[in-house]
Specification:
With about 180 residues, the protein is an alpha+beta fold. It has one domain. The strands form two sheets. Strands 2-1-3-4-5-8-10-9 form an eight-stranded mixed β-sheet. It has a two-stranded antiparallel ribbon with strand order 6-7. Strand 1 and strand 2 form a beta hairpin.
């Protein structure tokens, strides 16, 4: 049940339990998060939102209904990718010693292709808003020689000169 319907029921005198509304909101967040990847990955994934576990998983994947607060861009990550996201969030060190994978089949909200901390990514010269895509983090040596151009017609490296360099693999059209 969405918030508008809940508000209308409360105003009409039919008061809903906050626990019921909260559970239904959580279910919507879980569905949003799991939409980022194929069901064979997301159905048994842990779902997190704002640091809180909404659904326990069993396959080592973690899905979230948004990548950055309010961007409405669901993402599903393996453990390596989650470690990288934690490092990005804390501006901490990260070195990929093995490959890590992430799905964003709903696309993303857009970022600077070179700077994960750009102060205004929407106005960055290299702003890119990708459609459905996969992402692969790998040891830096494996990225050598790959294009950083998101318009090159295939996979490209994002954030190349940072510890968070990764391969973007578009799998659908951009908006």
């Amino acid at each position: 049940m969405n918030r508008l319907v809940s508000s209308m029921l409360i105003m009409s005198g039919l008061i809903l339990s906050p626990a019921i509304v909260h559970a239904e909101d959580n279910q919507a967040l879980i569905m949003q998060a799991r939409s980022a990847a194929p069901a064979m990955v997301s159905a048994d994934a842990t779902v997190m939102y704002q640091g809180k576990v909404l659904a326990e998983g069993s396959n080592g994947w973690t899905c979230m209904p948004e990548t950055m607060p309010g961007d409405n861009s669901p993402i599903c990550n393996d453990a390596v990718w989650m470690a990288m996201l934690t490092a990005v969030g804390s501006k901490g060190p990260f070195e990929a010693k093995q490959m890590g994978f992430s799905y964003m089949l709903g696309g993303d909200g857009g970022v600077s292709n070179s700077d994960p901390y750009h102060s205004d990514p929407m106005s960055a010269e290299d702003f890119i808003k990708e459609g459905p895509h996969l992402m692969v983090v790998a040891p830096k040596a494996l990225l050598e020689g790959m294009s950083t151009d998101p318009n090159s017609g295939g996979p490209y490296v994002m954030w190349k000169d940072t510890p968070y360099a990764h391969i973007m693999i578009p799998v659908g059209e951009r908006d």
